[in-house]
Design goal:
10 helices; two-stranded antiparallel sheet
Length: 432
């Protein structure tokens, strides 16, 4: 919490001084001092009276002055320098105009310590309860999306240690020892089991065409694709790519926020909304594909294989996360951004609208936008290349470029016309 005084350094503070009559201090017997033939009046202190009030503006940006607080009991008496003026009634020179002088006295603001108002100095952040003080307080924005940040960070560090010591070596061995066709077949099989859940959520999102495509994928891969081991639906002539969906997406599609960020053991990054949606999706799977897929002999091996398959697929992306300055914060931002893009794709917006590869938080566009080639700038000061003409009688080794033909010069403009007047004399008619 920061506390700033109500007086800004560059503002002009108006201090009320009850002084309408300014009495001059008696001048020495010798009279005012002479300097260069001009009469210089000494500084005259202002004697306050109860007749009226006058406002004297004191610039608060003076090097050694700080504006007084209006709530102080006794007003400060500023130094006023009188300028010479025409004498009145034969008296001595009176101060008719005031020139701003640099104050030398500093009056502390009530409730705070006196501070120098030199440029660049920041007033001390002290907690006070004065009326003329602005109290600025705020909360970290991350506390709303990550209220369990300390617990999540601890879980993240533990999971990172377990991943480096156990999961990553097993995943690398799984990738090296198990042939790629078998790994791809298992990947397709488990993804095919999620197609009924995807289709149900497309129906809930009022997307019948996407639901029909998903049902078509499930039928093709379950029959022609040998129970889902082959993803024939994405090949020609069908061109039906996998589109992940779930109740978490449905909640987000209808405007339900993600809630608090969670980093859970065995699950990884998620949110309250996505965690509830994922649990409900797993409940729907046995009813959609059969109860025998809900038995322990299937669920445990299936989860292990899916975890290894997912870990192999995100290996490169995970290394990029670890190279970040703050891997946990980067992981959290990546998750929320990826989930936002997935839900935006349901509305037909964003880079994932045409399809995606992988799962959050490492989903990538199925058809990424082509990156234009970078232009290589020419070095500064480089002279343009000059091609010398070939020597006489030498055979050209490559395509020759003839001299550039210059267009013919335009014909000169015709001279302006000259009008010449000749007098015409007609004879008078006869008999005139």
């Amino acid at each position: 919490m920061l506390v700033f005084p109500a007086v800004v350094a560059e503002a002009v503070v108006s201090t009320e001084i009850p002084a309408a009559t300014v009495q001059q201090t008696a001048v020495a017997a010798t009279g005012p001092a002479q300097a260069g033939g001009a009469t210089v009046a000494p500084s005259v202190p202002a004697t306050p009276t109860a007749a009226s009030t006058a406002q004297v503006s004191v610039p608060a940006a003076a090097p050694t002055a700080s504006a007084p607080n209006a709530a102080t009991a006794e007003p400060a008496t500023p130094s006023v320098t009188s300028a010479p003026a025409a004498p009145q009634d034969g008296s001595a020179s009176a101060a008719a105009a005031q020139t701003p002088a640099t104050p030398t006295a500093s009056t502390p603001v009530a409730g705070t310590a006196a501070a120098s108002a030199q440029p660049g100095n920041t007033p001390p952040a002290t907690k006070t309860g004065g009326k003329n003080e602005i109290v600025v307080s705020g909360k970290n924005g991350a506390s709303k999306i990550d209220p369990l940040m300390s617990v999540n960070q601890t879980t993240y560090r533990v999971m990172e240690s377990v991943d480096k010591a156990i999961v990553a070596p097993i995943a690398k061995g799984y990738r090296k020892q198990v042939p790629s066709p078998i790994r791809r077949g298992l990947h397709n099989f488990f993804f095919n089991l999620n197609e009924p859940v995807n289709a149900i959520n497309f129906v809930l999102q009022l997307k019948p065409l996407s639901a029909l495509k998903t049902v078509g994928r499930f039928g093709l891969n379950s029959t022609i694709g040998v129970g889902g081991l082959l993803d024939v639906a994405k090949t020609k002539p069908f061109k039906l790519h996998y589109r992940p969906n779930g109740l978490g997406n449905t909640f987000g599609y209808y405007g339900i926020g993600p809630g608090a960020f969670l980093f859970l053991p065995g699950i990884g990054p998620t949110s309250v909304r996505d965690l509830i949606g994922s649990i409900l999706d797993q409940v729907v799977v046995p009813f959609a594909v059969g109860s025998h897929f809900n038995t322990p002999w299937f669920v445990i091996p299936a989860n292990i294989v899916q975890a290894l398959d997912y870990r192999v697929g995100i290996d490169e992306d995970l290394e990029k996360v670890r190279e970040a300055k703050n891997p946990y914060i980067y992981y959290r931002q990546l998750y929320f951004r990826n989930r936002f893009e997935e839900i935006e794709a349901l509305h037909g917006r964003g880079p994932l609208a045409r399809g995606q590869i992988g799962m959050a938080p490492f989903a990538h566009p199925l058809y990424p936008e082509p990156t234009p080639p970078a232009l290589v700038p020419e070095p500064a000061g480089a002279a343009p290349a000059v091609v010398a003409p070939p020597a006489a009688g030498a055979a050209p080794s490559g395509p020759t470029v003839g001299p550039v033909e210059t267009p013919p010069a335009s014909p000169p403009a015709p001279p302006p016309p000259v009008f010449v007047a000749h007098p015409v004399v007609q004879p008078l008619p006869a008999g005139a």
